[in-house]
Amino acid sequence: MRVVFGVLGPVAAWDGAGRAIGLKGPRHRAVLARLIAARGRVVPVSRLVADLWEDPPADAVGAVRTFVAALRRALEPDRPPRAPARLLVTEGPGYALRAEPQTVDAWRFERAVAAAGPPEEVLERLEEALGWWRGPAYADFADEPWALAERSRLTELRLHAVERRAEARLALGLAGAAVPDLDAHVADHPWREEGWRLLALALYRTGRQGDALAVLRRARTLLAEHLGVDPGPALRRLESDILHHADHLSPAASGSAASDSSTSGSGAPESRAAESRAAEPGAAETVWARAAAAYDRSAPRGARARLESTVTLMRGLAVTGGGGLQAAREHRVAAIAAAEELGDAQLTARVIGAYDVPAIWTRLDDPDQAAHVIAAAERALTTLAAFPPATALPAGAHDAARARLLATIGLESRGTHSPRGPQAAREAERLARRLDDPRLLAFALNAVFMQTFHRAGLAVHRDAIGAELVALSARHALATYEVLGHLIRLQARCALADFPGADAHACAADRLAERYELPLVSVFTQWYRALRLDATGQAPVEDVESAYRAAAARLDGAGMPGLERGLLPLALLCLRLRGHAQPARPPRAASADEGAGFGPYEPWVRPVVLLAQGRRDEAAAKLRHIPDPPRDLLLEAMWCLVARAAVAVGDRESMERAHSALAPAAAELAGAGSGLLTLGPVSHYLDDLAAALRR
Questions:
Q1: What is the pLDDT of residue 96?
Q2: What 3-state DSSP class applies to 13?
Q3: One domain for residues 94 and 221
Q4: Is 267 or 248 the better-scoring residue by pLDDT?
Q5: Please, which residues have CB within 8 angstroms of residue 479's CB and are 6 or more apart in sequence?
């Protein structure tokens, strides 16, 4: 049986009839992927063990042999018993995959890109070869050290193939067909000078000389402002040639144009080094600069049009994370202020309401800014109310503008005790359903979700919101809201201790995030996987702590201070309080005299930490004045901390408050609804409270 292997996407294998071959679990696929990456060389068993486990189990070698045996049965089902394997062979200290070159998609792709020939053949061959990609190379193993070099090499090869395909199109006089792909290519990979050169040349050959020069200016600006370098000789020469209408730029001279690529190709060391830096946190600022330059060149010059265009740009920038998210927040406030200065209530409503960026975390990153946005939205609502709907805006637009303002208020007032937030969110939902506007309804449902923390025990209700968001977004191609729906369901299934369900939503969110380049999503899914290790008891406490610390490291520079502050110390404290480490020892990150280490959670953590240090009277004093926790994803966890301290000091009033607050959540895991940490079953705390109150 002929077996075909695929690594240009998730690792897979197919039989001669094109049917998928079952490869069992992730470690089975990891063994196969590792052997494919070795390109026929022997991989010692000791190397496989080191690549498969950070902390190998005692029977790791036996486990590898079991994986190999299962793979052999799957890949060669007709092999007679005791007959030597033909594909996955044993050699010396390890194993090797003896696959034919044409049976591995990555190896076929290399040959297709390297092969020469006339432009017609090159174009046909590259069109087919680029179609073999089903996702990023070795997609299942993006974070594995052994896969990094091969993934980088194949990614570079794919980018080179895209540029070679464009060269072939230009050589065949198909400049117009080359422009869309090249435009997307430079947007995704702004440091590849060859991509900019080909795009400018294609635009020039379609009669768009001004656009060609603008593209070259964009490239120059990006390289200078973000890398501190000037364009290479090929880009400088092309700009001069376009200005002078050089004869060799005409379609008839395409052969010479194609040969120019050798002087500044994608393999230039400067381009490769620059491109590698595009993945660093500063890339978010690069996205901003690129988009802003495009709007500056193309958008109408009127202030109103520019303001609305800016908000659209900020909406995309906000999901890039890091500096992009922070920049979007800053420019949002400036855009609202500018709209209000123009005295146009309708414009202000559009500027405020157009920023419908999905939000999953219930604690604000910048409360002062949120208050500013809410005040502006309320002013816009008041002004709109003074205009008759029939004359102020086109049919339906008046209610749509109101719904967006109300949804904004619902989102920006999350975590507070104000009744305005829930009322605004419900009204936004009602208007959106009446207008039958899918994106507006998704925005309103996000606000409704944020206002479902007025009491404990609402995980089932939030799960229903997430399910509607997933279904609605999938029908109407609202990718960011589909991700939001999966993250909401992940949180809810965690709260209900349904970890298989949460796993499915984490995987779905990760797939969408990779497809649509949403880097912040993996911050939440990595935290969830640390929580899963913690809650299911499937790993030693040292591994769980390491997982939490690794997840916390992802928050550094992510642009989400409302999530980051105090989270790691709180997660480690919860781990210890549940008996997985010494419960009497508070986390090193924050002692009782360093409560700031717990950030916003300090008032509810402080009595527990004081008790752990034997300072019972101080703990009791703090407990007597403790406020109700914020209405957010950690509501149940904070009440459980109150319950624990109240039982320990015998504070009956605090015990009664905690019992009343926690009773609706008796079937949930405390804190797990955050998808980040847990204090265990709420029912345990209720039992302790009930027993203490009976005494």
A1: 93
A2: strand
A3: no
A4: 248
A5: 473, 512, 515, 516, 518
Dihedral in degrees, nearest 10, Cα atoms 33, 38, 39, 40: -100
The reply to whether 151 and 207 lie within a common domain is: no
Whats the size of the chain, residue-wise?
695
| Range of the structural domain that residue 587 is part of | 554-694
How does pLDDT run across 182-216, given as a tens digit for each residue?
988 888 888 888 999 999 999 999 888 888 998 89
The answer to whether position 324 is within a domain reads no
Last residue of a domain, one of 172, 192, 220: 172
**Domain of residue 167, CATH code:** 1.10.10.10
Cα-Cα-Cα-Cα dihedral sign, residues 571, 445, 366, 665? negative
pTM of the model: 0.59
- Please tell me which of 394-408, 449-463, 547-561, 590-604 the model is most confident about, judged by mean pLDDT: 449-463
Task: Find the CATH number of the domain harbouring 248.
Answer: 1.25.40.10
Asked whether residue 479 is assigned to any structural domain, the reply reads no
Contact 665, 457 (CB under 8 A): yes
**Calpha distance 139→550 (Å, rounded):** 21
Together in a domain, 121 and 90: yes
The tens digit of pLDDT for each residue in 47-93 reads: 999 999 988 899 999 999 999 999 999 999 888 888 888 899 998 88
Q: Tokens for 277?
A: 């830096």
Dump the DSSP string for 285-306.
HHHHHHHHHHHHHHS-SSHHHH
Contact 162, 245 (CB under 8 A): no
**Cβ 471 vs Cβ 463: under 8 Å:** no
Asked whether residue 182 falls in the same domain as residue 166, the answer is no
Q: What is the mean pLDDT of residues 312-325?
A: 68
Instruction: State the DSSP H helix or E strand holding residue 90, giving kind and residue range, or none if neither.
Output: strand 88-91
DSSP assignment string, 442-478 = HHHHHHHHHT--SSS--HHHHHHHHHHHHHHHHHHT-
Cα 530 from Cα 551, distance rounded (Å): 7
Dihedral-angle region of residue 517 (phi above 0 means left; psi in -120 to 50 means alpha; beta otherwise): left
Q: How far apart are CA 407 and CA 17, in angstroms?
A: 52
pLDDT over 50 (residue 258): no
Residue 512 domain flag: no
- Please state, in angstroms and rounded to a whole number, the distance separating the CA atoms of residues 198 and 257: 9
Assigned token pair, 67: 């994986």
In the predicted model, what is the mean pLDDT of residues 32-41?
Answer: 92
Joined together, the tokens standing for residue 680 give 């265990």
Mean pLDDT, residues 308-337: 72
Q: 179 is written with which tokens?
A: 């422009």
* pLDDT single digits (tens) 326-379: 777 777 888 888 888 777 778 888 889 888 889 999 998 888 889 999 999 999
Q: What is the pLDDT of residues 152-179, one digit of tens each?
A: 889 889 999 999 999 999 999 999 889 8
* Angle ∠(602,604,608) on CA atoms, nearest 5: 100
Structure tokens at 405: 């303002």
Point out the domain boundary residue: 142, 172, 202: 172
Q: Range with the lowest mean pLDDT among 217-231, 504-518, 544-558, 635-649?
A: 217-231
Does the residue 515 lie in any domain? no
Q: Is residue 184 located within the same domain as residue 164?
A: no
Q: How far apart are CA 562 and CA 367, in angstroms?
A: 9
- Helix, strand, or coil here: 310? helix
Q: Indicate whether 191 and 123 sit together in one domain.
A: no
Count of the separate structural domains present in the chain: 3
Same domain, yes or no, for 96 and 160? yes
- Residues 148 and 238 occupy one common structural domain: no
